[in-house]
């Protein structure tokens, strides 16, 4: 596994833990829950800091916060009786799509990932067929 891939795993894990500790800030009512909240904050930000050594900080932070924020809103609706509003769910969907777009637009992914995805999906062959059909030469 490459360092960049491991860094993305750390960002996602940190964002998932962020969902729990943010809810813990609001709902913790015992020393154990406060302690778990503090451990969550430490793990979450430590994973983010480690990941930023191998991924663009701006993209990593946007993904980290976006996934965490979306997860908090959904968990509050699912587990803590916050009102379910279609607009909230729609905005979270847009946020998650933007986060995915940022991940795929990061520097370390530009050439390698695009080439790999293009090859796996057969886009290279489709492009070659289109170019041949319309008479474009490489």
Counting H and I runs of at least 4 residues, what is the number of helices? 6
Mean pLDDT: 81
Number of domains: 1
Helix content: over 70%
Please give the radius of gyration in angstroms.
Answer: 20 Å
Keywords: Cell membrane, Membrane, Transmembrane, Transmembrane helix
InterPro entries: EmrE-like, Small_drug/metabolite_transptr, Small_multidrug_res
Main location: membrane
Protein name: SMR family transporter
Keywords:
138 residues; flat; membrane; transmembrane
Provide structural commentary.
- The structure is a single chain.
- This protein is an all-alpha fold and 138 residues long.
- The protein has one domain.
- The chain is 81% helix and 0% strand.
- The chain has 6 helices and no strands.
């Amino acid at each position: 596994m490459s360092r960049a891939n491991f860094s993305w795993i750390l960002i996602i894990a940190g964002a998932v833990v962020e969902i729990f500790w943010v809810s813990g800030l609001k709902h913790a009512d015992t020393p154990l829950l406060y302690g778990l909240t503090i451990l969550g904050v430490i793990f979450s930000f430590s994973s983010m800091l480690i990941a930023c050594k191998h991924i663009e900080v701006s993209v990593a932070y946007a993904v980290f916060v976006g996934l965490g924020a979306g997860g908090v809103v959904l968990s509050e609706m699912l587990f803590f009786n916050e009102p379910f509003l279609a607009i909230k769910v729609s905005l979270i969907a847009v946020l998650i799509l933007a986060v995915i777009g940022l991940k795929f637009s990061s520097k370390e992914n530009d050439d390698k990932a695009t080439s790999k995805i293009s090859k796996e999906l057969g886009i290279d062959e489709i492009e070659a067929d289109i170019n041949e059909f319309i008479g474009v030469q490489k």
